[in-house]
Amino acid sequence: MEKKIAIVAVVVAALFLAGTFIATKMKSTNAALAACGAGAIAGGAVGGPFELVNSNGETVTNEDVITEPSLVYFGYTFCPDICPTDAMRNAVATDLLDEQGTEVTPIFISIDPERDTPEAVGYFANNFHERMIGLTGSIEQTTAASKAYKTYFAKEANGDPDYYLVDHSTYTYLNIPGMGVVDYFSHTDDPETVAERTACIVDAVGAN
Fold this sequence. Notes:
Structural class: alpha/beta
Number of strands: 9
Helix content: 40-55%
Order of helices and strands: HEEHEHEHEHEEEEH
CATH architecture of the largest domain: 3-Layer(aba) Sandwich
Largest sheet: 5 strands, mixed
CATH topology of the largest domain: Glutaredoxin
Oligomer: single chain
Shape: globular
Distance between the termini: 51 Å
């Protein structure tokens, strides 16, 4: 009986120490993110698993494409202004980070699968940066990915069947493998801001 009690005590102590370690590590990580000006906290409700289709027509998951710090954006290739501007901003930020020795992957996820074929979204992404990954999928797949990242999109009602617009949110999310979304950038943030905050966060959490 005493032996069983001793074993239970050891297990409880181990769980307590593990919990304390995790809590301390999370507190330290959150402090580091806050010091960099991050707007999202690691382990938060934004971001999550997804299954989409790449430019080669292959089904891929978030684990397949987010293998290093990544700038994730939801848009569509027929977007007349906002999406090209944000995609170019993310591409420039990626180059600025390269110059500093910090490598990230820019990712463009389509929320218009009716028109954005794998080839189309791949061509669109590659025009902005050679490392930018273009992803699309079925309406179910793209909707699920959008919901995971808490983004919004809505197809124009009664629009031209070929030239309709899609209203959508315009945030770019910094996702780090093993941590998830740790920061986000608005449409008004310039490339220098994106690069500076991203480099600070990547360095602070040791994701280089």
